[in-house]
Specification:
Helix content: 40-55%
Structural class: alpha+beta
Distance between the termini: 20 Å
Number of strands: 5
Strand content: 25-35%
Strand order of the largest sheet: 1-2-5
Largest sheet: 3 strands, antiparallel
CATH class of the largest domain: Few Secondary Structures
Number of helices: 3
CATH topology of the largest domain: HU Protein, Chain A
Number of domains: 2
CATH architecture of the largest domain: Irregular
């Protein structure tokens, strides 16, 4: 689903204009981003938990040159889905 498809689906369900829905979605993403920048977690009921996690520095090896180098520490975003989401994904059949 693209961003435009998400906005259209939300606008239809909420009976809002696409402009109102776009603004609401932008504000929601901004608030989540600001919370993650402040290293706070964001728990959305029925969806899951977004949190900023610190990854420590580590030594990595270039496979072609075998040269070792230090990867600096960084902060990454982690998402842990709720059990409801996990159960819904388990019910999906893969058509291969």
């Amino acid at each position: 689903m693209t961003n435009l498809e998400l906005i259209a689906a939300l606008a239809k369900r909420l009976n809002w204009t696409q402009r109102q829905t776009t603004e609401m979605l932008e504000v929601t993403v901004a608030v989540i981003g600001e919370s993650l920048q402040a290293e706070d977690s964001v728990n959305i009921s029925g969806l899951g938990l977004f949190e900023a996690k610190k990854k420590g520095e580590r030594i990595s090896v270039n496979p072609t040159t075998k040269q070792r180098f230090l990867v600096p520490p960084k902060i990454v975003v982690a998402f842990k889905p709720t059990q409801i989401v996990k159960d819904r994904l388990k019910k999906i059949t893969v058509n291969e």
